[in-house]
Amino acid sequence: MSAATSPARSRIVVAPDSFKGSIDATSAAGALAEGWRSVRPDDELLLRPMADGGEGTLDAFAAAMPEARRMPVAVTGPTGRRIDSHWLMLPGERPRTAVVELACTSGIELVGADETVNPLATHTLGFGQAIRAALAAGATRLLLGIGGSVSSDGGAGVLTALGAVVRDAHGRQVASGAAGLARAASFDAERLIPPPVDGILVLSDVRAPLLGPDGAARVFAPQKGADPDQVDRIETALTRWARVVGADPDGAGAGAAGGCGFGLVAWGAQLASGADAVAETIGLDAALAGAVRVITGEGSYDSQSLLGKAPGVVRAYAEARGVPVSVVAGRFGVAAGADDLSLVDVAGSPSAALSDPRRWLREAGARLARRHTGRDSV
Predict the structure, then answer these.
(1) Half-sphere exposure of residue 133, counting CA atoms within 13 Å on the CB side?
(2) pLDDT one-digit tens code per residue, 80-93
(3) Residue spans of the chain under pLDDT 50
(4) Residue 365 C-alpha from the chain's centroid
(5) Considering the entire predicted model, what is its pTM?
(6) 119 upstream amide cis, omega within 30 of 0
(7) Where in the chain is the domain with CATH 3.40.50.10350?
(8) Which residues of 214-224 are buried (b: 16+ CB within 10 A; e: fewer)?
(9) pLDDT of 282-297, one tens digit each?
(10) DSSP 302-335
(11) CATH fold for the domain made of 11-49+290-376
């Protein structure tokens, strides 16, 4: 192709969420970019993998900020087993911001295939231990992703790791998990580490209260293996916990991550839309300046995707700048646009798309690039 007919160099922003159970956001962004470059190697591609506070949040920050440092930490996992994990220190002198992710310290993905999960015993102690390590390393601000939980302990494990003590009516410290909260009679915060001076932002897309039909027990505990009797016991335990702590259980997001949102707010945190906070911190808006297209996506794109989830937030940022959007999704629960691609259609079947998502994301990126080149030549 001659210089006279070669396509103009374009800036493309690649900002997908993870494809749950298939491929993480960072790998998905890389595969889409590889496919695009195979057709248009001279384009400027800015990779901004997204997250909403769940699994992949820490990796999204790391991918967008190469100078960020992964800090190893050993914690007590949600079933009591030791977990070798990490947290992330973002670049910059002040605030010194640490990103700590519940999913990689106390999350459901950490439960081994051969482990039996007791929904009344799982806890967030390891998440609190990682937070404590970040504070000890000098963090003055915390970004806490709380998606992917396997516990329903109201955040008691986090607060215990940070120095609080929960006791029963006889003055004995209660065990971790909802079963322990069922016997809680007092909450001793005398040795609780104070919040960092530059604040705590909790990243989540869940706005549920702690208690009631829309709360942590009734809605989310069954997803973590709780049977109806256990759901009732967890609801009773969280009701007791809220009374002992003396904080508001009705706030939006208090029920997130099995009530971890409640415990963190009681500590002094603020709750925020996870995807919005990630987009702001990784500089999505600045990346979109001068872009001619943004590619986003997730495993299942449906009506909920536009209600605070990562692809919807990316679309909102792009539309504010007048940048066209292409959505690549495993499946569409709503009508796909003319510039969107279904991996099932690209791969030929759902099983093929799931078996090798990286391959089909590369192919999707290449197809989108060919469409773009076709527009250039018009």
Answers:
(1) 22
(2) 999 999 999 999 88
(3) 1-5, 377-378
(4) 24
(5) 0.88
(6) no
(7) 11-49+290-376
(8) ebbbbbbbeeb
(9) 999 999 999 999 999 9
(10) -GGGGTTSHHHHHHHHHHHTT--EEEEEEEESSP
(11) Rossmann fold (3.40.50)
